[in-house]
Amino acid sequence: MKMRIGLAVMALVTAGLAPAQEPAPPSAVAAGWTISFSWSPEFCKRNLGSKELQCLQEHYFVLSGLAPRFEGLAPACQDDSLPRELLPRALDVMHNEVRLKKAWRTQGACSGLGAAEYVLQLERAQRRVSMPDLFRQTPREGLQLPQDEFRKALLRDNPGLRADAVALQCRGDWLESIDVCVDGGFGFQACPAPQRSDCPDRLRLRPIRPILRSGQGD
Questions:
Q1: Where does the signal sequence lie (predicted)?
Q2: Secondary structure of 51-118 in the HEC alphabet?
Q3: pLDDT, the chain, mean
């Protein structure tokens, strides 16, 4: 009996001396996202000869990035490349393999999500913003309109979208891309202060090129 008591006491003492196990830190969850759309005619104009899908077919706004925003410490970036089996699905929304791989490497791999989860978020981002048909109607010399009119059309076609949730990026007078800021649940929210527009009061959109054939009968 004394031996049993002694063993029990030793077990308790040993347990007390053992270092306490630290609880596993919770997975980082993005507090918000920045959804980026490039004006495809501008990209293709500046990348003549590009064989990317967005330049071989007729496109106007193309999803070009989905960057997470964190409050506090962001998760470590993964080293893995985007699995090839996910490429066809992801290219359905991004239409540019080089940009897709860069988005995964610099944004998705640092989001705390796995590759399949990130592609799911890309699909969600692409559906979240509707681009007005007005922007499709670009004459041969391009479309020129006040920035306010451009923004109003965007807000009109996206109920709940706020003016401060949109940042326009230009090169000179020519529109290059649009950033739309959303919260973790993909509700529209104001963009962070550094993420401001750099477009003039009147901006220009390059015309959409006619559909180009890829030689594969599509």
A1: 1-20
A2: CCHHHHCCCCEEEEEEEEECCCCCCCCCCCCCCHHHHHHHHHHHCCHHHHHHHHHHCHHHCCCCHHHH
A3: 83
Contact between 189 and 182 under an 8 Å Cβ cutoff? The reply is yes
Domain ranges of the chain: 30-205
Q: How far is it, in rounded angstroms, from Cα 180 to Cα 216?
A: 35
Under 8 Å between Cβ of 203 and 197: no
Q: What is the pLDDT of residues 28-47, one digit of tens each?
A: 578 999 999 999 999 999 99
Tell me how far apart the alpha carbons of residues 60 and 58 are, in angstroms, rounded to a whole number.
7
Q: What is the pTM (predicted TM-score) of this model?
A: 0.81
**119: which 2 tokens?**
């592609």
Q: Count other Cβ atoms within 10 Å, centred on residue 58.
A: 14
Counting residues of the chain whose pLDDT is more than 90, the rounded percentage is: 62
| Alpha helices (H) in 95-213, listed in sequence order | 97-106, 115-128, 147-156
CA distances from 116 to 69, 83, 97, 123 (A): 19, 9, 16, 11
End-to-end CA distance of the chain: 86
pLDDT digits (tens, 9 = 90+) for 87-108: 999 999 999 999 999 999 999 9
Q: Which is it for the CA torsion 95, 131, 164, 30, positive or negative?
A: negative
